[in-house]
Amino acid sequence: MNLVYLSFAPLLLAPGIGSRAARPVAPLVLLAASAAQAAAALAVAFTVTTGTSLAGGYLTTDATARLFLVVINLVFLGIAGYVWNRARTTPELADQVSRFARLSLVFMGAANFVILSNHLLAGWIALEITTLAATPLVVRTGVPSSRHAAWRYLLFSSVGLAIAFVGLVCLGRSMATTGAPPTFFLDELRSAPTDAPNMWRRLGLALVVLGYGTKLGLAPMYSWLPETYDEAPPSTTALLAAVQFNCTLVCLLRVLQVYRAGDRDLVATELLAIGLVSMAVSTVSIIATNNYKRLIAYASINHAGVIAIGLAIGKSASYGVVLYVVSNAFIKAILFLTAGKIKAHYGTKDTREVSGLISDLPYSGLFLMVGTFALLGFPPFGSFLGELIILSGLVRADQILVFVIFCSLVSLSFVATGRTVFPMIWGAPKKKVHWPRQSFLSVTPKLAFLVALVAMGIYMPAPINALFRAVAASLGAG
């Protein structure tokens, strides 16, 4: 179990790498720390077979914790590799890299606590810490619009988390009405007797869905997400979209796992509604945008909507939700890191100013193309299988109208995304920009993510599949 505590060890390095003397080695320290965290996460995931309470009951190693601990730390390792390579090839970014290294280690320490937390309020506090650590990382030196985006991110995140906190308090009050002592420890909640849902439980669940939904970028309070993802540096965007998103989702899953256990229809209507509205909003926005970073951001809103619909259905859709969530963590990491490379090369985020990527930046063009196919849910990627299982769950639940709307919105998103992205990849470059050739080392993180995506769609080793199924079972899968 000491391996679990190793997940927090890099926090001790954060103060040291902020000094001017340590700046030259900050990227290497970040890479080494992220590798240690990833190794610890993998060891915990595949050496622990049952949930164990640690640190006085505040930490747990159940299936949900083990799976998402691996996901966020592998993504962070890829981001650290990207940052290390950028620092190596662009020395003038030393100050920014040092700041990112320091704050991202604090961010990841809190993120790991969110995932491992066995206490709903402790997890909420840790999620707030990730928000405070990430806010300065959104700001880019000399870009006033990024400062505005950072404040907006902080405002919406704080409002969403405040709503979620009120929801958690209501859930605690719901236990008091039944005579049971209020508790926020997951293991105690799981063993508590299941009673008929009361008004406090219904209100609490609705507020938690709205609050954490705001942090996930779900409608109606989603407007912070496109601006933040667009203005933030690519490493920060990937951190928010592929790491913090999953931390927030785990907080929501924890609540649903224990408070919907006796009645899977609780907040199902709310989840379906915000899921469909989010998909509709993202589809319209994808059609209208000419900014490739915003396009990926709008697709993230679409993905959050799909996840909400899958959670509403539960049961047979649960495995698909887990597969879809993990797949999209890697997809968003690939696409946002690739977008950063494209922006650095061309100096623009306008899709109309970029073409011929496959000949000008072969690796980036290839990853943009393959990442877009995965984004749209094509086989053989895990996102395809996950989406297919969710659609199957809709049919089994007799949600035919939702199924039709879902398929229509996905089709429109597919056409709009393809129309915007594929002209960027093919054709002659609009202008010749001199840029050092991309090394294979610089694309290794994205290649690893791509291999994981294909593996999830074609063949998943038994231990990993068992972990996925255990998480799905906690969400109500039969």
Describe the structure in brief.
With 478 residues, the chain is mainly α.
- Secondary-structure element string: HHEEHHHHHHHHHHHHHHHHH
Tell me the Rg in angstroms: 21 Å
Overall geometry: globular
On the 0 to 100 scale, the average pLDDT is: 89
Helix content: over 70%
Poorly predicted ranges = none
Structural notes for this entry:
The protein has 478 residues and is mainly α. The chain has a domain at 292-441. The chain is built from 19 helices and two strands. It has helices at residues 2-6, 26-47, 63-89, 94-116, 120-138, 144-176, 186-191, 199-216, 224-231, 234-259, 268-288, 292-313, 318-346, 357-360, 362-375, 382-396, 400-425, 440-458, 462-474; strands at residues 53-54, 59-60. Strand 1 (53-54) and strand 2 form a beta hairpin. The radius of gyration is 21 Å and the shape is globular. The two termini are 30 Å apart.
Task: Give the key terms.
globular; 19 helices; 478 residues; two-stranded antiparallel ribbon
Q: How does the SSE layout of this entry go?
A:
Elements: H1 2-6, H2 26-47, E1 53-54, E2 59-60, H3 63-89, H4 94-116, H5 120-138, H6 144-176, H7 186-191, H8 199-216, H9 224-231, H10 234-259, H11 268-288, H12 292-313, H13 318-346, H14 357-360, H15 362-375, H16 382-396, H17 400-425, H18 440-458, H19 462-474
Antiparallel strand pairs: 1-2
Helix pairs in contact: 2-3, 2-4, 3-4, 3-10, 3-13, 3-18, 3-19, 4-5, 4-10, 5-6, 5-10, 6-8, 6-9, 8-10, 9-12, 10-13, 11-12, 11-17, 12-13, 12-16, 12-17, 13-15, 13-16, 13-18, 13-19, 15-17, 15-18, 16-18
